[in-house]
Design goal:
- The protein is of the alpha/beta class.
- It folds into two domains: about 5-150 and about 330-395, FAD/NAD(P)-binding domain; about 160-325, FAD/NAD(P)-binding domain.
- It is built from nine helices and 21 strands.
- The strands form five sheets. Strands 1, 2, 3, 4, 5, 6, 7 and 20 form an eight-stranded mixed sheet that branches.
- Strand 18 and strand 19 form a beta hairpin.
- Helix 1 runs parallel beside helix 3 (about 85-95), helix 1 (about 35-45) runs parallel beside helix 8 and helix 4 (about 190-200) packs across helix 5 (about 220-235).
- The radius of gyration is 25 Å and the shape is elongated.
- The protein starts with 10 loop residues before the first strand and ends with a helix.
- The protein binds flavin-adenine dinucleotide (FAD).
């Protein structure tokens, strides 16, 4: 495939046509084509560095595309009210406009170094049981994200194991918000993801209930204001200090049992900073008292939420879907391909010097969600900063000069 580009022509390698001894060369190999890897491509291109970008997924975009394509992205300057999918659609042509080689559908299986310090990155393509493909480069940028992502749904919730795998009752994130049109949806969680999902779904869902085990939500003041407004309009129910204790699905009847965390504990007082952040106006929405239930009577809240049958301290909610937004457990077994290189890996993430984004391995950089350093935030904007910094460091080392000879061989 040859794609017209503003600056240059994309070189696409057909794996089937490669001889077994084929070794490609670039100044830089970028592993991962999520936001961080893509923007590293842009930085390489604009700096005149040739690059190969590799991703296991068949298309670029990383977790934005794989996990939440229809959720709006927040906190990215210049991209107000845009879905993750649309954001990536704009990012890809910008970042891959320069001459490069892209290997999508290829998984990096190993990285080694030659005697002169050149990296050799070995990949295998998903659909081909062919010989591995090798790319040599003076520099490597690892932008491999959070590796394997597994939704963090507590296994202790009663009934969870009995939900059929084919059921769409229990979910971890919304892939297509259309599926929630006209539905009763419960969202579990109180952080940014839970609030983001709630705000995306509320306009189209029949009802949304946001259930959080703590007594306040953790998100920006702007989002709190929106939540508060929706809650006042009656389209959103906010249930705090409450856990999900059981899930049951019998035929078309899907029930979420919620249990009050601690009926006797008073709601915590907001700190000064919280008051400054939220202001009293929407604090009334955020610090919502959960009505006490009795086993004999039903409360207004219970009726509104479609509740039926309960024990003390417990409510049952009829919904179509429950979305858990408790984050993801990152399983870092994919990083086994880094073992030969042995960078400093802490808690499944790669430690870097934030001043350079270089790992403990010389000329090997890491950026995006895969890295760890003090006060690292796993969001889109830091990916840009980190990619820019890594490529600046590479450029300052004179990658062009170092690799020119090798490319001409
Ligand atoms: C549900 C959810 C909602 C979010 N909402 C927002 C938001 O609104 N605003 C915001 O700023 N941030 C948000 N984030 C965070 C943001 O998406 C991430 O910080 C950002 O996408 C990280 O990009 P990345 O390039 O580091 O990693 P990724 O996007 O994870 O990309 C890494 C890529 O590396 C590839 N890869 C890994 N190992 C290999 C290998 N061995 N070989 C080949 N390829 C490999 C993977 O396939 C993947 O495509 C959200 C995250 C989640 C989970």
């Amino acid at each position: 495939m040859e794609r017209g580009a503003r600056y240059n022509i994309v070189v696409t390698v057909r794996v089937s046509s490669l001889s077994k001894a084929y070794m490609m060369r670039s100044d830089v190999v970028i592993i991962g084509a999520g936001v961080a890897g893509l923007y590293a491509g842009y930085c390489c291109g604009i700096s005149g560095l040739s690059f190969t970008i590799i991703d296991s997924l068949a298309k670029p975009g990383g977790q934005c595309i794989a996990l939440y394509p229809e959720k709006k992205v927040y906190g990215v300057p210049g991209f107000h009210d845009v879905t993750a999918c649309d954001f990536i659609d704009k990012l890809v042509p910008q970042c891959l406009a320069f001459e490069h080689t892209e290997l999508f559908g290829h998984t990096v299986e190993m990285i080694n170094t030659e005697d002169d310090g050149t990296f050799v990155v070995q990949t295998r393509s998903m659909g081909h049981a062919k010989k591995p493909l090798c790319i040599s480069a003076r520099y490597v940028i690892i932008a491999a994200g959070i590796c394997d992502m597994k939704p963090n749904i507590p296994a202790t919730i009663a009934g969870l194991q009995d939900i059929s795998e084919s059921s769409d009752f229990v979910q971890s994130c919304c892939m297509k918000i259309d599926m929630y049109k006209g539905k009763d949806v419960a969202i579990a969680g109180g952080g940014d993801s839970a609030v983001d999902f709630a705000l995306s779904i509320i306009p189209i869902a029949k009802s949304v209930i946001l259930i959080h085990r703590r007594d306040k939500l953790t998100c920006s003041a702007v989002k709190l204001r929106s939540i508060s407004e929706w809650e006042r309009s009656g389209k959103l129910k906010l249930i705090l200090k409450t856990n999900i204790s059981e899930l049951t699905e019998r035929g078309n009847e899907r029930v979420v049992t919620i249990t009050r965390d601690d009926g006797n504990r008073p709601l915590s007082k907001p700190s000064e900073s919280e008051l400054l952040l939220g202001g009293t106006e929407h604090r009334s929405g955020v610090y919502l008292e959960v009505h006490e239930h009795s086993s004999t009577g039903s409360t207004q809240q219970e009726a509104d939420c479609g509740g039926f049958g309960m024990r003390s301290n417990e409510s049952k909610l009829k919904v179509d879907h429950i979305i858990f937004c408790y984050g993801f457990v990152a399983r870092c077994h994919k990083l086994t391909w880094l073992h030969a290189l042995a960078p400093d890996i802490k808690d499944g993430m790669i430690a870097v010097d934030v001043n350079t984004m270089e790992t403990s391995v010389k000329n090997c950089y890491a950026i995006g969600d895969v890295v760890i350093y003090a006060n690292k935030s796993k969001n889109i904007v830091p990916c840009f900063f980190e990619a820019d910094r890594a490529v600046r460091m590479i450029k300052s080392k004179g990658a062009d000069a170092v690799h020119k000879d090798k490319r001409s061989t």
